[in-house]
Amino acid sequence: MENDLKLLWEKEAQLDMHGWNFDHLKGRWLNKEMPWDYRKIVLKYLKQDASLLDMATGGGELLLSFKHNTARTSATESWLPNIKVIKERLLPLGIKIYPTKTEEELPIKDDSVDFITNSHAAFNAASVYKKLHTGGFFITEQVGATNNFSLSRYLDESYTPPYPESTLLNSIINLKSAGFEILLAKQSFPELIFFDVGAVVYYATVIPWEFKNFNIDQCFDKLLSLQKLIDANQYISTNEDRFIIVARKRA
After folding, report:
1. β 242-249/132-143 pair status
2. For residue 31, what are the β-bridge partners?
3. I want to staple 140 with a disulfide (CB 3.0 to 4.6 A). Which of 82, 116, 118, 201 is the partner?
């Protein structure tokens, strides 16, 4: 039984993720809803004639869901596998792509765009401010420092958050110091539920910054304990840490 589980989990650990989606986990996990909808908030402020830049766009899935004028849309991305994906997906649509070395990099002229979106990517508040037109918007949803802390700490007793400075308070202070007006700021800790241990293994494998030392052999006994919990309770859960900010560049 244990050998069968190990083989199953090892297969999960060998899988890759393309773009930024978790289709492989469909039906195997549940993300509890947050009290906001990032896409709806973006669309509330985004005008059709605005020039839009999406930072660290991943595979471009979220950007495309905005259905914005592609001639007025651009995106940055720093991860090589994703750059290949968006060149095939976004370039034919007329969306301009800026490959970068880091998530924070914005290789565009100062005072050149109306709108910058950022979903779960690092950013420099002063740099974002410089790139926006006066009155321009910056909307970001971020992963907070305590994201999945209980599960990460369970699998690795030496785990500490990789980005302890990623908090709503720090981000507000940095944005206001750069010159932004804060129009919206909210935080939430939604429950994240896994229905099988293989789903945990896959998730831990493709999110290495939160599960830095994860491997099947080292964590096997702990994975077996998770299996017993799921056998008894049908699921295990942890908590995400999310916050969203809408900021506007003041004159």
Report:
1. antiparallel
2. 192
3. 118
CA distance linking residue 59 with residue 243, whole number of Å: 22
Categorize the per-residue pLDDT at 229 as very low, low, confident or very high, splitting at 50, 70 and 90: very high
- Non-local (6+) Cβ contacts of 124 within 8 A are 104
Say how far apart CA 58 and CA 187 lie, in whole Å.
23
The number of CA neighbours under 13 Å toward the Cβ of 94 is: 8
* Cβ atoms within 10 Å, residue 150: 13
DSSP-derived secondary structure for 144-181: -TTTTHHHHHHH-TT---S-TT--HHHHHHHHHHHTEE
The maximal CA–CA distance of the chain, rounded, in angstroms, is 66
Q: End-to-end distance of the chain based on CA atoms, in angstroms?
A: 66
Find, among 148, 188, 183, 194, the residue nearest to 168 by Cα: 188
Bridge pairing between strands 191-194 and 29-31: antiparallel
Phi/psi at 108 (5° precision): -130, 165
Measured from the Cβ of residue 190, the count of other Cβ atoms closer than 10 Å reads 15
Please, which contacts does 73-81 make with residues 24 or more away whose CB atoms are closer than 8 Å? 74/98, 74/108, 74/113, 76/100, 76/103, 76/105, 76/106, 76/107, 78/102, 78/103, 78/105, 81/16, 81/18
C-alpha dihedral over 36, 38, 43, 49, to 10 degrees? 150
